[in-house]
């Protein structure tokens, strides 16, 4: 399994955009399902989006559909989350995670390894 490191978080105004990256080193990134999760203070970790090993299948939580886009570049061993039309409710620490299964899961429990997270803050 790969080691993961997120980047690209920051402070933006509502309506703005951010692009998160998750760089993987080693492991089996190119064959793993990858996902993005987020956690706001005092709340449970929430599924955001996931993508199959070859990018052929993507899924999103309803609250981000039409605003966020997940993608991956296996040649670069990097996962991305393009976030547009950001809302204050999107404020959270965002984590990328990998799952050695080919099943595209939407629960944190299914994922095997995690990055350290990157803070996204959206001001109103």
What is the element layout, followed by pairings?
Layout: E1 3-7, E2 10-13, E3 18-25, E4 33-39, E5 46-51, E6 58-60, E7 68-73, E8 78-83, E9 92-99, E10 113-114, E11 118-123
Parallel strand pairs: 2-11
Antiparallel strand pairs: 1-3, 3-8, 4-5, 4-9, 5-6, 7-8, 9-10, 9-11
In short:
This protein is mainly β. 0% of the residues lie in helices and 49% in strands.
Order of helices and strands: EEEEEEEEEEE
Structural class: mainly beta
Helix content: under 10%
Straight-line distance between termini? 39 Å
Strand content: over 45%
- Secondary structure tally: strands: 11
Radius of gyration: 13 Å
Mean of residue pLDDT values: 96
- Number of H/I helices: 0
Which descriptor suits the 3D outline? globular
Uncertain regions: pLDDT < 50 for 5+ in a row?
none
Largest sheet: 7 strands, mixed
Describe this structure in words.
There is one protein chain. The strands form two sheets. Strands 2, 4, 5, 6, 9, 10 and 11 form a seven-stranded mixed β-sheet that branches. Helix content is 0%, strand content 49%. It is an all-beta fold. The model has no long low-confidence stretch (mean pLDDT 96).
Keywords:
124 residues; four-stranded antiparallel β-sheet; seven-stranded mixed β-sheet; mainly beta
């Amino acid at each position: 399994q790969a080691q993961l490191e997120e980047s690209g978080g920051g402070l933006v105004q509502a309506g703005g955009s951010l692009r998160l990256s998750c760089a993987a080193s080693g492991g089996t990134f190119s064959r793993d399902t990858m996902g993005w999760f987020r956690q706001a203070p005092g709340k449970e970790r929430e599924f955001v989006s996931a993508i199959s090993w070859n990018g052929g299948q993507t899924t999103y939580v309803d609250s981000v559909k039409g605003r966020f886009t997940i993608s991956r570049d296996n040649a670069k061993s990097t996962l991305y989350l393009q976030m547009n039309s950001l809302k204050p409710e999107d404020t959270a620490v965002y984590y990328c995670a990998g799952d050695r299964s080919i099943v595209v899961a939407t629960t944190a429990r299914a994922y095997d390894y995690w990055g350290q997270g990157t803070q996204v803050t959206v001001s109103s």
